[in-house]
């Protein structure tokens, strides 16, 4: 296996897709209220919420350890409801030369689906592919969905 990789996973949601897109685009600082076991805080470091080029700082718990990530909002696609974050500092940068996360919400038909895509380059062949981080994102997405379902009940 090469050092570059890509992981893609999907999860069905019951909430409106527009709500998810809005959260990932301009309200990631609210995720800690919806999935506190995963995200403890998200702070704006530079720029404005929901703006390409802005920098956000996440405190999160992954694999039982407290971790941090400083990320730039690299792209926002309103038409396709996707947001891409590029990790520039933090724990992931100890394992990966590059790491991008894209959250895409598909709202075609009656089903709403969140697709997470990771694009990365590992520091060495010894570094595992980020499957547990994908599990983290899928679980966080389900928590956000449950939060919105209980608030809209």
Question: Can you tell me about this structure?
Answer:
Strand 4 (65-77) and strand 5 form a beta hairpin. With 153 residues, the protein is of the alpha+beta class. Helices cover 23% and strands 46% of the residues. A 7-stranded antiparallel β-sheet has the order 1-7-6-5-4-3-2. The mean pLDDT is 93. The protein has helices at 17-26, 31-34, 131-151, and strands at 4-13, 39-46, 55-62, 65-77, 82-90, 96-106, 112-122. The chain contains 3 helices and 7 strands; from the N terminus they run βααββββββα.
In the predicted model, the low-confidence regions spanning at least 5 consecutive residues are none
Write the element-wise H/E pattern from the N-terminal end onward: EHHEEEEEEH
Instruction: Going across the biggest sheet, name each strand in turn.
Output: 1-7-6-5-4-3-2
| Count of runs of 4 or more consecutive helical residues | 3
Name the structural class: alpha+beta
Q: In angstroms, what is the radius of gyration?
A: 15 Å
Largest sheet: 7 strands, antiparallel
Beta strands, count: 7
The chain-level mean pLDDT equals: 93
- The percent range for helix content is 10-25%
What portion of the residues fall into strands of 2 or more residues?
over 45%
Shape summary:
globular
The span between the termini is 47 Å
């Amino acid at each position: 296996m090469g050092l570059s990789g890509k992981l893609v996973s999907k999860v069905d949601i019951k909430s409106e897709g527009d709500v998810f897109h809005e959260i990932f685009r301009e309200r990631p600082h609210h995720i800690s209220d919806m999935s506190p076991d995963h995200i403890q805080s998200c702070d704006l470091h530079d720029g404005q919420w929901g703006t390409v080029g802005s920098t956000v700082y996440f405190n999160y718990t992954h694999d039982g350890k407290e971790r941090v990530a400083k990320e730039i909002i690299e792209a926002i696609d309103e038409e396709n409801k996707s947001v891409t974050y590029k990790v520039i500092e933090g724990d992931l940068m100890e394992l990966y030369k590059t790491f991008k996360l894209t959250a895409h919400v598909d709202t075609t038909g009656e089903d709403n689906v969140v697709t997470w895509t990771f694009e990365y380059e590992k520091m060495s062949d010894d570094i595992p592919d980020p499957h547990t981080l994908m599990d983290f994102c899928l679980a966080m997405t389900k928590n956000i969905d449950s939060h919105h379902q209980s608030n809209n009940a």
